[in-house]
Amino acid sequence: MFTGIVEELGEVSHVEQRPDAARLTVRGPLVTSDAGRGDSIAVNGVCLTVVEVSGSEFTVDVVHETLRRSSLDEAEPGRRVNLERAMPANGRFGGHVMQGHVDGTGVFLRRDPDDLTHFAFPPELARYIVEKGSIAVDGISLTVAAVGAEEFAIALIPTTLALTTLGRTEPGESVNLEVDVLAKYVEKLAAVHLPGAAVENGVGKEDA
User: Fold this and answer.
1) CATH 2.40.30.20 occupies which residues in the chain?
2) Which terminus of the chain has a lower count of CB atoms within 10 Å, N or C?
3) Most distant pair of Cα atoms in the chain: their distance
């Protein structure tokens, strides 16, 4: 589990393309300081498993499903990435509950003079994005300041701009989005109680 508090701004140092996968080597002195094979590190919000550590670099395999759902298919040497180690059981809970399971990609649109930053999102995520709710953008825990039919806005403080990729993102670039997992669970649990819920074995699911 992650909380969306970026620990380090890392850099992709090598990309090896493989059939239906890619192997990335990422430089991150802080996150590799206690990392070992099998550990989880979020790279731009994507939970990945460390397969090798060498000095200040770690290597991960990114499978086709992850490449399809995230912006990591655009990774190239020199690209900066947000890094966060998995939260320990006794760690400080600084952001919100995140799994590192990207729901889809959005697009950075613009920054307003009033310091709101706008992102477009795919239609299937619309019901999970609410004003004052939580959302992860490239692995950063953020609060939705405003939401419309096709885009949402967040207010970024200078520290976030300085210490994460969002200070370097240009209009038109893709970002990884992970909506609040609690909203998805609530939707799943509530769906069976709504009119028209499916019936299994002669018993309405709403009665289960």
Assistant:
1) 8-85, 104-188
2) C
3) 61
Entry pTM: 0.88
Instruction: Return the number of other C-beta atoms located less than 10 Å from residue 117's C-beta.
Output: 21
CATH 2.40.30.20 correct for 104-188: yes
* Residue with tokens 């397969």, as numbered in its chain: 51
The pLDDT tens digits of the residues spanning 32-88 come to: 999 999 999 999 999 999 999 999 999 999 999 999 999 999 999 999 999 999 988
Amino acid at 4: G
- Say how far apart CA 83 and CA 77 lie, in whole Å: 16
Q: Which of 47, 49, 44, 70 is nearest to 59 (CA)?
A: 49
Taking alpha carbons only, the member of 37, 42, 13, 39 closest to residue 25 is: 13
The answer to whether 178 and 99 have CB atoms below 8 angstroms apart is: yes
Half-sphere exposure of 45 (CA within 13 A, CB side): 34
Classify 8-85 by CATH class: mainly beta
| Per-residue model confidence as pLDDT tens digits over 124-143 | 999 999 999 999 999 999 99
Q: What is the pLDDT of residue 188?
A: 86
Phi-psi region of 139 (alpha: psi -120 to 50; beta: other; left: phi over 0): left
121-127: which pairs have CB atoms within 8 A and are 24 or more residues apart?
121/150, 121/151, 121/152, 121/177, 122/177, 123/150, 125/177, 125/179, 127/187
